[in-house]
């Protein structure tokens, strides 16, 4: 039986070859496989009926969105998940499954994987298959301690993913946001904490999500942000956050006191990571994702179909 990811890849390759006029060699370089693999995919696409005289597939619209987003924002890869008629829970699960599949298939050159926090990243970890990846080390990109929503903290997700990979992980034994800048300086001077923060700067790839602090905000739900914080963030133009770091509609880090109390990777350091994989679900995050794209923080985007279409409308 043809899997959904294999079918998506066939449709994408067939579009590039038959509609965009790319050569097999060009497609092979773009996708990151050998030319014979592309040839086999094209042949298989004919055998299963994806390609006849024209390309027919219920996912052709999502493939168009993928190609347009890649071109518009200079991304290495985009996966648009078809979620028409899904409930919010089903959408998040579907995007999580796509993120897990993508990560599992693209770990070849990754030895140090950074992981952030949140419900969408947690869904990726939940959907990740059990396998042996002993050579991969998972590193939390920000702190995460406390009693509230422990299951979506970076430390917990690093641990859960390392169990599924049969690999190892580090732990950043601090809250993500501390009470004062003085406390932050004290904690960051501790040898174990400093060592994990240094690890976070040198990851080969990072798995993150993007939040909107103003709409359906997990930060607000678990108590990291109060009403006064939200009002202040709105006044300075914040549209989104990655790993507790806030940015404006141009993707620029905002000069807000809360940023000075975060223990974890900075946006500038994130931008320097070779491959940043963002997994996002929800149309309320359109402005947030757009800001992150303008800030050049992302290399790979895995996103639901509705939000993908809105991104192109609002660019």
From TrEMBL:
<dbReference type="Pfam" id="PF04198">
    <property type="entry name" value="Sugar-bind"/>
</dbReference>
<keyword id="KW-0805">Transcription regulation</keyword>
<dbReference type="InterPro" id="IPR007324">
    <property type="entry name" value="Sugar-bd_dom_put"/>
</dbReference>
<dbReference type="InterPro" id="IPR001387">
    <property type="entry name" value="Cro/C1-type_HTH"/>
</dbReference>
<comment type="similarity">
    <text>Belongs to the SorC transcriptional regulatory family.</text>
</comment>
<keyword id="KW-0238">DNA-binding</keyword>
<dbReference type="InterPro" id="IPR051054">
    <property type="entry name" value="SorC_transcr_regulators"/>
</dbReference>
<dbReference type="InterPro" id="IPR037171">
    <property type="entry name" value="NagB/RpiA_transferase-like"/>
</dbReference>
<dbReference type="InterPro" id="IPR009057">
    <property type="entry name" value="Homeodomain-like_sf"/>
</dbReference>
<feature type="domain" description="HTH cro/C1-type">
    <location>
        <begin position="13"/>
        <end position="41"/>
    </location>
</feature>
<keyword id="KW-0804">Transcription</keyword>
<protein>
    <submittedName>
        <fullName>Sugar-binding transcriptional regulator</fullName>
    </submittedName>
</protein>
<dbReference type="Pfam" id="PF01381">
    <property type="entry name" value="HTH_3"/>
</dbReference>
């Amino acid at each position: 039986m043809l899997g959904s990811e294999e079918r998506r890849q066939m449709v994408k390759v067939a579009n590039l070859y038959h509609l965009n006029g790319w050569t097999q060699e060009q497609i092979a370089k773009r996708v990151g496989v050998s030319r014979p693999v592309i040839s086999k995919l094209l042949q298989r696409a004919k055998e299963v009926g994806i390609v006849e005289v024209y390309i027919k597939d219920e996912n052709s619209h999502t493939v168009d969105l993928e190609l347009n987003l890649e071109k518009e924002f200079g991304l290495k890869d985009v996966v648009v998940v078809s979620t028409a008629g899904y409930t919010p829970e089903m959408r998040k699960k579907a995007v999580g499954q796509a993120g897990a599949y993508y990560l599992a298939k693209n770990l070849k050159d990754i030895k140090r994987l950074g992981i952030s926090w949140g419900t969408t990243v947690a869904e990726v970890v939940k959907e990740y298959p059990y396998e042996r990846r002993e050579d991969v080390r998972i590193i939390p990109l920000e702190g995460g301690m406390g009693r509230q929503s422990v299951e979506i903290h970076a430390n917990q997700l690093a641990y859960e993913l390392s169990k599924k990979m049969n690999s190892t992980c580090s732990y950043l034994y601090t809250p993500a946001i501390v009470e004062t800048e003085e406390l932050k300086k004290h904690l960051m001077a501790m040898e174990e904490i400093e060592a994990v923060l240094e690890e976070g700067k040198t990851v080969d790839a990072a798995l993150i999500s993007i939040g909107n602090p103003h709409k359906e905000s997990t930060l607000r739900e678990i108590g990291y942000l109060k009403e006064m914080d939200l009002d202040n963030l709105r006044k300075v133009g914040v549209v989104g956050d990655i790993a507790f770091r806030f940015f404006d509609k141009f993707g620029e880090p905002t000069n807000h006191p809360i940023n000075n109390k975060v223990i974890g990777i900075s946006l500038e350091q994130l931008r320097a990571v070779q491959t940043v994989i963002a997994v996002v679900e929800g149309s309320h995050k359109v402005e947030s994702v757009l800001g992150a794209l303008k800030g050049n923080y992302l290399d790979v985007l895995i996103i639901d179909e509705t939000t993908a279409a809105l991104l192109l409308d609002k660019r």
